[in-house]
Specification:
This protein is an alpha+beta fold. It has 3 domains: 7-75; 80-198 and 272-346, no CATH class; 200-267. It has helices at 7-19, 37-43, 63-74, 93-100, 154-157, 180-197, 199-230, 238-265, 340-346, and strands spanning 23-27, 30-34, 48-51, 78-83, 102-103, 107-130, 134-144, 164-165, 269-293, 296-305, 310-311, 314-315, 322-323, 325-331, 334-338. A hairpin with a 2-residue loop joins strand 1 (23-27) and strand 2. The longest helix is centred in the middle third of the chain and has 32 residues, at 199-230. The radius of gyration is 31 Å and the shape is flat. The termini are far apart.
Length: 347
């Protein structure tokens, strides 16, 4: 029997199980666990089990501990913190508007300002590119959680601002629960960033594919010429001649199969996954703007970010991509915000 005298091991097991909906209590030197059905299946345990018993030994190196570790690392770890700055900008926002945002075909007027709190995320992503070789790495993205906008410069700025972190169980309620839009925008931007990082790798794989395809074509062309030259050999019988002609006729199909195999070999598959996140509560300045476009007006809220000391870019209301260059569009008696790409598609 494993006793509770190994507090670190049992504390880890209890934390993982409770996080995934398990109920636990000490019982006779073991840990009585009541597990949801899905959790029990993933750990290959009954729904009611004594951890530390012969049925579920909790030992270093045991299969159960390995499954618990896998469960704990399946989800990206998240830390919550706060960044407090001694000063928030009070004026000069008209100049920031001219510098940081562009409204093509629309006019904006600053109506009011207010100090408030919002949340940002530093998302750590891991990427793996698989082809004939393997390339992997990490990248960071800074996101505004409420809008999903990707914030340039945030990944460099946050560390310089001496953030403090909330202890477990003491996280304030300001952080949004639903982050699908922010994460979708972040991973989309991560895909673009990874493509830039993998430029040399992609070029190398394409160059090697081109070289191997060229060598394959040259090989089969030389083989065809050699086999055709052999047709004039006076020792060939008619059946041998017909057999060789059939082989020559099959060469293009065989060559194309070899080329298809090469294309499969050098096909590049890129996987991007979130591996960790930092979420920060930050004091900001909200600016309320009035945007005019073709006799229509709408209110618009933008954020002056004290970490980057710039206005955050906005989110396209068509594709949800991030853009600092906005094309207002009058549609159905309302003004919509579009990025340059969506504006071209809809014009």
């Amino acid at each position: 029997m494993t006793s509770l005298s190994d507090p670190e091991l049992y504390a880890f097991a209890a934390a993982v199980l409770e996080r995934h909906g398990g109920l636990l209590e000490p019982a006779d030197g073991q840990l009585l666990a009541l597990l949801p059905s899905a959790l029990a299946r993933s750990l290959e345990l009954p729904e009611e089990v004594h951890l530390g018993s012969e049925q579920a030994p909790l030992l270093y190196g045991s299969p159960l501990l390995d499954r618990l570790v896998g469960l704990a690392t399946r989800e990206a770890p998240v830390a919550y913190g706060q960044i407090e700055l001694p000063y928030l900008k009070k004026s000069g926002f008209e100049q920031c508007l001219e510098r940081d945002l562009s409204f093509v075909g629309g006019q904006v007027r600053l109506a009011s300002r207010a100090e408030a709190r919002t949340t940002y995320m530093i998302l750590f992503c891991r990427y793996v590119a698989l082809s004939d070789e393997r390339k992997e790495g990490l990248l960071q993205l800074g996101l505004h959680e409420a809008s999903g906008a990707v914030i340039p410069g945030l990944t460099e700025a946050w560390e310089e601002c001496s953030p403090s972190f909330f202890p477990a169980g003491q996280v304030p309620p300001h952080f949004p629960l639903h982050l699908q839009q922010a994460l979708a925008g972040g991973l989309k931007q991560a895909g673009s960033a990874v493509t830039v990082r993998l430029k040399d790798f992609l070029t190398s794989m394409r160059r090697r594919l081109g070289r191997d395809v060229r060598n394959t074509r040259e090989y089969y062309e030389a083989l065809r010429l050699e086999m055709e030259a052999g047709l004039s050999h006076h020792h060939l019988t008619e059946s041998q001649r017909q057999e060789r002609l059939a082989k020559i006729a099959a060469l293009p199909q065989e060559r194309d199969r070899k080329i298809a195999d090469l294309e499969q070999k050098y096909q590049i598959r890129v996987q991007i996954s979130a591996c960790a996140a930092l979420r920060f509560l930050v004091d900001v300045v909200y600016l309320l703007l009035e945007l005019s476009c073709r006799r229509l007006t709408r209110s618009l809220r933008v954020i002056w970010n004290p970490l980057t000391k710039r206005l955050d870019p906005l989110v396209c209301e068509a594709c949800h991509g991030t853009s600092a260059r906005i094309y207002p569009a009058a549609r159905n008696a309302e003004v919509r915000l579009h990025c340059p790409s969506c504006s071209r598609k809809m014009s």
